[in-house]
Specification:
Shape: globular
Number of strands: 11
Structural class: alpha+beta
GO cellular component, one term: CatSper complex
Number of domains: 2
Distance between the termini: 94 Å
Keywords: Cell membrane, Cell projection, Cilium, Disulfide bond, Flagellum, Glycoprotein, Membrane, Signal, Transmembrane, Transmembrane helix
Strand content: 15-25%
Main location: membrane
Membrane topology: Single-pass type I membrane protein
Number of helices: 3
Largest sheet: 4 strands, mixed
Order of helices and strands: EEHEEEEEEHEEEH
Protein name: Putative cation channel sperm-associated protein subunit delta-like
Helix content: 10-25%
């Protein structure tokens, strides 16, 4: 089998790659043809695990080293229902960190393949005179083999096709890029009922169960009392 077709729900992807912030937000479910010959089998990842890909550098078919430079990834079909474990504060940033949304919004024509590369990367650990203030809780989206930052998936089972770009301009004169896929599994389907309604229904059912037990207990207790009274009457000597 060369291809596998799967569906991406309308509420987890943005075909303009703007993470649902653009003027158009509802374009229906997306049908995708997964190319096994190009991508191979997707790597299985449990949705509750923190995930961080390890990049290996090859020259032709010869392994050279594990890449330790900074890199970023984005989902090829515009899926954006995943996050990162680090923030600007926990990552030790000294200036506002770059992000996919910020870099894409600076483009005249949105193109995730050129929005964030080694040509325009600025590390947030580089000090800047008169740097603008930023929110320390802002998500830090740069990954590296030398940091703790990783990907955290939401309660969603499905295939993610990631494009990876190495950002560090000092690591290579070449633009190092690759593409791979993961298949997230293990997430329970989301309930269609709001949490408050579920709690109220659960409490209501619990109350009904308690009342039922009380009624049953009273019924058997009274029935037992009546039997005892009848027994006493039958055995009373007249």
């Amino acid at each position: 089998m060369k291809y596998h077709q799967y569906t991406i729900p309308r509420d987890v992807y943005d075909r303009h790659y703007l993470q649902g912030t653009g003027p158009e937000t509802d374009w229906g479910d997306l049908e995708v043809m997964y190319d096994y010959w190009k991508l191979g089998c997707p790597h299985p990842v449990y949705y509750g695990f923190i995930y961080k890909p390890v990049l290996e550098l090859y020259e032709h078919d010869v392994f050279k080293e594990v890449i330790t430079a900074d890199f970023v990834l984005t989902e090829a079909n515009g899926i954006y229902n995943y996050g990162y474990t680090e923030t600007a504060d926990t990552a030790g940033c000294k200036r506002r960190p770059q992000s996919w949304l910020l870099m894409l919004q600076q483009q005249f024509t949105v193109d995730p393949y050129t929005a964030w590369t080694r040509e325009n990367y600025i590390s947030c650990h580089s000090p800047e005179q008169g740097a603008e203030r930023y929110d320390p809780s802002q998500t830090y989206e740069v990954l590296s083999n030398n940091t703790a930052n990783g990907i955290k998936f939401s309660q969603y089972n499905g295939i993610y096709v990631f494009n990876i770009t190495v950002l560090d301009p000092d690591y290579s004169f070449c633009q190092l890029e690759t593409q791979f896929a993961v298949e997230v599994f293990g997430a329970f389907p989301k309930s269609e009922l709001p949490a408050l309604r579920i709690m109220m229904i659960t409490c209501g059912l619990g109350l009904i169960a308690l009342i039922s037990l009380y009624v049953i207990d009273i019924f058997f207790w009274r029935d037992g009392e009546e039997e005892q009274v009848e027994t006493r009457r039958d055995s009373f000597p007249y």
